[in-house]
């Protein structure tokens, strides 16, 4: 078991390890003793872990009520949060009560926003159940919702009291969701730490849980440091958007038929090739291929570019430029401001490069073949 202290205001601990579900009552006790816990969870995760989490909390004499919800990008929105806020009100929750979310990044986004808004803010504890949420979404307090106009437009930064990542939950996570999480892990390998890049490259592609514990811990540390330096996201925290300019455009253009981590991986590749960093692009591609993530996409370029320009609100600056993160080398990424025309050219060049790329075996990875493999 490992613990990282995220030194934001307030600071909090991130626990990462095995069998932590049985410890959740003990870990919650100092925060929730004498109060109620509203467990906001994914309706698919609830039957897997809801009972065990509830029993471990009730063991410490704390009342728990479960609020399972159906989540997808199209419903990661204000309407879902409003429904939850109304339910909490109808069930007489009060300012001292605690929201515990159990699920992936969508659940931590929805529950984080609900906690920030209910009675002007109540305590929230994240229990991430996906690789992506353990390494990224559950750390740093960002809670983001979508609008029909684009992804992640409604957001806040609201730090949790505690994060508890039980890696045993990954045993039930479908293989494609593990791969999606690897996409986000690769972002950290490219962003900060060339040691992590080499470790992933030389590692057997099928990682066991013990390996994952170390990898999650490394990524969580990198994210924690970035967040400590810039909790509100006006400066260097922007670096965690590596792969997101093109990635989110791909998600939006394809109507979210690609997983977030897959999109981030493709987004890094597009940005590396599009900005002329071919060697770095080749290195990113080698990692994506190794973990069987898509390295090309069969989708009209113009739709992806249009989504980046018109739906990429998070990257847009007041003077009409866009902020992008350029992977110049592994472990060296820089933020740049570009005009709409420059962004268009970068994306065009990057998308053309990945469409004409081949992997080592000569087989093209594509969104289409990836979807077939999944179904
Ligand atoms: N706010 C942030 O800082 C931040 C950072 C990164 C990503 N995100 C957001 O996170 C979302 C992606 O998160 P995600 O990849 O965790 O997806 P997710 O929350 O949609 O979960 C993926 C799928 O896995 C299932 N699942 C979850 N845990 C499981 C388990 N242990 N066993 C079996 N099935 C399980 C879920 O039911 C779901 O179908 C995106 O919406 C993205 O925008 C937010």
Distinct ligands: nicotinamide-adenine-dinucleotide
- CATH fold topology of the largest domain: Dehydroquinate synthase-like, alpha domain
Strand content: 15-25%
- Span from first to last CA? 35 Å
In total, the number of strands is 11
CATH class of the largest domain: Mainly Alpha
Shape: globular
Q: How many structural domains does the protein architecture include?
A: 2
Separate helix tally: 14
Low-pLDDT residue intervals, each spanning 5 or more residues = 359-363, 368-375
CATH homologous group name of the largest domain: Dehydroquinate synthase-like - alpha domain
| Helix share, percent | 40-55%
Could you explain how this protein is built, in words?
By secondary structure, the protein is an alpha/beta fold. It has two domains: 2-172, Rossmann fold, CATH 3.40.50.1970; 176-374, Dehydroquinate synthase-like - alpha domain (Dehydroquinate synthase-like, alpha domain), CATH 1.20.1090.10. It has 14 helices and eleven strands. A seven-stranded mixed sheet has the order 1-2-9-6-5-3-4, with helices on both faces. Strands 7-8 form a two-stranded antiparallel ribbon. Strands 10-11 form a two-stranded antiparallel sheet. Helix 4 packs across helix 5, helix 5 packs parallel to helix 6 and helix 10 (260-274) crosses helix 13. It is globular. Mean pLDDT is 92; it is low at 359-363 and 368-375. Nicotinamide-adenine-dinucleotide binds at residues 42, 44-45, 48, 71, 73, 76, 103-107, 109, 129-130, 132-133, 136-137, 140, 142-144, 169, 172-173, 177, 180, 260. Nicotinamide-adenine-dinucleotide is lined by residues 42, 44-45, 48, 71, 73, 76, 103-107, 109, 129-130, 132-133, 136-137, 140, 142-144, 169, 172-173, 177, 180, 260.
């Amino acid at each position: 078991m490992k613990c990282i202290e995220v030194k934001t205001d307030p600071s909090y601990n991130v626990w990462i390890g095995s069998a932590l579900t049985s410890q959740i009552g003990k870990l919650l006790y100092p925060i929730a003793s004498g109060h109620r816990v509203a467990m906001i969870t994914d309706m698919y995760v609830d039957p897997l872990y809801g009972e065990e989490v509830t029993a471990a909390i009730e063991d410490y004499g704390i009342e728990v009520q479960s609020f399972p919800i159906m989540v997808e990008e199209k419903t990661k929105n204000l309407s879902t949060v409003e429904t939850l806020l109304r339910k909490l009100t109808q069930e007489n929750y009060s300012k001292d009560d605690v929201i515990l979310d159990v699920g992936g990044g969508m659940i931590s986004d929805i529950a984080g926003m609900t906690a920030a808004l209910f009675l002007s803010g109540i305590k929230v504890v994240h229990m991430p159940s996906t690789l992506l949420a353990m390494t990224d979404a559950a750390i740093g307090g960002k809670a983001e919702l979508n609008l029909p106009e684009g992804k992640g437009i409604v957001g806040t930064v609201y730090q949790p009291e505690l994060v508890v990542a039980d890696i045993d939950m990954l045993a039930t996570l479908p293989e494609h969701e593990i791969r999606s999480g690897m996409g986000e892990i690769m972002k950290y390998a490219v962003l900060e730490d060339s040691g992590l890049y080499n470790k992933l490259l030389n590692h057997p592609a099928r990682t066991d849980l013990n390996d994952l514990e170390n990898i999650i811990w490394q990524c969580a540390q990198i994210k924690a440091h970035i967040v400590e330096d810039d909790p509100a996201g006006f400066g260097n925290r922007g670096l965690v958007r590596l792969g997101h300019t093109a990635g989110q455009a791909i998600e939006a253009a394809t109507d979210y038929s690609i997983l977030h981590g897959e999109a981030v991986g493709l987004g890094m590749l597009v940005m590396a090739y599009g900005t002329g960093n071919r060697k770095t692009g080749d290195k990113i591609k080698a990692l994506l291929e190794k973990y069987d993530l898509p390295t090309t996409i069969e989708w009209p370029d113009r739709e992806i570019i249009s989504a980046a320009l018109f739906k990429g609100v998070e990257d847009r600056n007041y003077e009409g430029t866009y902020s992008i993160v350029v992977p110049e080398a592994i472990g060296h990424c820089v933020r740049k401001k570009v005009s709409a025309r420059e962004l268009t050219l970068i994306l065009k060049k990057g998308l053309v490069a990945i469409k004409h790329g081949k992997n080592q075996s000569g087989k093209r990875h594509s969104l289409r073949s990836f979807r077939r493999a999944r179904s």
